[in-house]
Automatic annotation (TrEMBL):
Keywords: Heme, Iron, Membrane, Metal-binding, Transmembrane, Transmembrane helix. The keyword Metal-binding applies. GO terms for molecular function: heme binding; metal ion binding. It holds the Pfam family Cyt-b5. Residues 5-81 form the Cytochrome b5 heme-binding domain. GO terms for cellular component: membrane. Its main location: membrane. This is Cytochrome b5 heme-binding domain-containing protein. PANTHER family: CYTOCHROME B5 (PTHR19359), CYTOCHROME B5 HEME-BINDING DOMAIN-CONTAINING PROTEIN (PTHR19359:SF25). The chain crosses the membrane at residues 109-127. Belongs to the cytochrome b5 family.
């Protein structure tokens, strides 16, 4: 049977920010850590301060082990709507694409020109060989 992944906006996830209802967003996934607060070896306070925003950086900074990453699966309740991120929270790549589309820099034009140039050269070489 196909499983449907529940999608939450960052706003929705951030509303669960108390000891009795604690959701955390890590690497685009939403975790309900309410029942894990007391068991978390890093303490409950760090989890409570990680609510209401993307906690990926804090999670990675703590240097979690592979077993911790395995354990995460037990608490995953869904995924974050990628379009609900604010610009600051978007990944570097998305930000870059947005930037190129909305306000290209001279460097972007050089890269674009290089791509077009190489494509034209490759096309001409191909046609000559035929
Ligand atoms: C689903 C989410 C999480 C799980 C399952 C989890 C699990 C664990 C586990 C098993 C450890 C013990 C060390 C290890 O095995 O790596 C640990 C330590 C720790 N965690 Fe988490 N954690 C989660 C989220 C977070 C978040 C969001 C933060 C920060 C905001 C955090 C901060 C820490 C810290 C500071 C330690 C202690 C590291 C140390 O003393 O060396 N954890 N966590």
């Amino acid at each position: 049977m196909p499983t449907t992944t529940k999608i939450y906006t960052l706003q929705q996830a951030s509303e669960h920010n108390t000891r009795d209802d604690c959701w955390v967003v890590i690497h685009g996934k939403v975790y309900n850590l309410t029942n894990y607060l007391d068991e978390h070896p890093g303490g409950d306070d760090v989890l409570l301060t990680a609510t209401g925003r993307d906690a990926t950086e804090d999670f990675e900074d703590a240097g979690h082990s592979n077993s911790a990453r395995e354990l995460m699966k037990d608490y995953c309740i869904g995924e974050l709507d990628p379009f609900s991120h604010t610009e600051k929270e978007q990944t570097g790549l998305v930000q870059k694409i947005l930037h190129v589309c909305t306000a290209p820099t001279a460097q972007d034009w050089v890269v674009l020109a290089a791509i077009v140039g190489v494509s034209v050269a490759a096309g001409m070489l191909y046609l000559r060989r035929k």
